[in-house]
Amino acid sequence: MTNLPPTIEWVDGVVRIVDQRLLPTEVVLLDCIDLDALIEAIATLAVRGAPALGAAGAYGVVLAAGRAGDDADQVRHEARRLAEARPTAVNLQWGVDRALAAYETDGAAGALRAAHALAADDVAMNERIGQLGSQWLRARFGDRPLRMLTHCNAGHLATVGYGTAIGVIRTHASHGLVEHVWVDETRPLLQGARLTAWELGRLGICHRVIVDAAAASCMADGEVDVVIVGADRVAANGDVANKIGTYGLAVLAAHHGIAFMVAAPSSTLDAATPDGGAIVVETRPAHEVARIGDRLVLAEGSDVYNPAFDVTPAKLVTVLVTDSAATEPSRTNPA
Ligand code: MRU
């Protein structure tokens, strides 16, 4: 039990999410009563994070099936529309596919059973990631409390529950082995500052928020033992797509000889994508960069490029922790 609200759940025929656009100032539960509402919630990041998007994909198919009934073509069409709401996190397509396959054989009730099973599995996988990641850290660093650095939000709020990168952090913290966590604020949408810091606060884990640009000097000052991040898609060769800024952290970690851990459930592994070059990186609207809150911070006429993710080559990853193993890809990161 934690004092964190459920990220996503099925309640009386609607998909209920905690509206992450409003956190941390307001904790508001939002009921998505139809697929359009859910797609809007996904596109505007009211619900976000790869594993949570997997559950949203599955429950979204249930919503579509409830509306379209026996019209399987319509359900398939709606499922495609849903899967296209965000392109980078493979979990969204995966969740849609799982629920759609169940719908094809067992109708809407089957899709709902599949979505519930997927949601329960997600929490179990994340808890296992937490154990395996913490074991790896103990083998590597012993029983010394660690200074960790994380980026974006790969926690409870990015999953059905527990978190991936933050799952490792909280399991390690439960052994008294986290000194503190540096939280990258994560421009432009501040998932680190708004979500991770709030989540760590609710979990009672000591943390400090830094601007993204401060990570380099924290590392140079010897203040970081390990970087721990999540993933939106891990290609067959181990390249990792994650929130923009992750690649820079991996380069910095390699330069400073710091371990770089990626934590992701098997639902984020994409054997069909050979390498990072084949991953579609979502580009988001200019206003996310041009505005901070309500304030326009760009001079009129300045153009914006706003990629939401980047790709870290496998060789910069010290360890990839999934729900089944902690593996160390061949790497150039000397950590
Ligand atoms: O754009 P977002 O907030 O959906 O991006 C989320 C991330 O990049 C997370 O690090 C990733 O999905 C892993 S979540 C366990």
Q: Topology as H/E string?
A: EEEHHHHEHEHEHEEEHEEHEEEEE
Count every helix, treating DSSP H or I runs of 4 or more residues as helices: 9
Q: Determine the mean pLDDT.
A: 96
Cα-to-Cα separation, first versus last residue: 35 Å
What count of structural domains? 2
Write up what this structure looks like.
By secondary structure, this protein is α/β, with parallel strands linked by helices. It folds into 2 domains: 8-122, Up-down Bundle (Four Helix Bundle (Hemerythrin (Met), subunit A)); 141-332, Rossmann fold (3-Layer(aba) Sandwich), CATH 3.40.50.10470. It is 41% helix and 18% strand. The chain has 9 helices and 16 strands. The protein has helices spanning 35-43, 50-68, 72-83, 90-141, 165-174, 191-203, 215-220, 246-256, 287-290, and strands at 8-11, 14-18, 29-32, 146-150, 178-184, 207-210, 226-229, 233-235, 240-243, 259-263, 269-270, 291-292, 295-296, 309-312, 319-321, 326-327. A 7-stranded mixed beta sheet has the order 6-5-4-7-10-15-16, with helices on both faces. The protein has a 4-stranded mixed beta sheet with strand order 11-8-9-14, with helices on one face. Strand 1 (8-11) and strand 2 (14-18) form a beta hairpin. Helix 2 (50-68) packs antiparallel against helix 3 (72-83), helix 2 (50-68) runs antiparallel to helix 4 (90-141) and helix 3 crosses helix 4 (90-141). The radius of gyration is 19 Å and the shape is globular. The two termini are 35 Å apart. Bound molecules: 5-S-methyl-1-O-phosphono-5-thio-D-ribulose (MRU). 5-S-methyl-1-O-phosphono-5-thio-D-ribulose (MRU) binds next to helix 2 and strand 9. Residues 45, 48-51, 89, 152, 154, 158-159, 164, 191, 230-232, 242-243, 308 line the site of 5-S-methyl-1-O-phosphono-5-thio-D-ribulose (MRU).
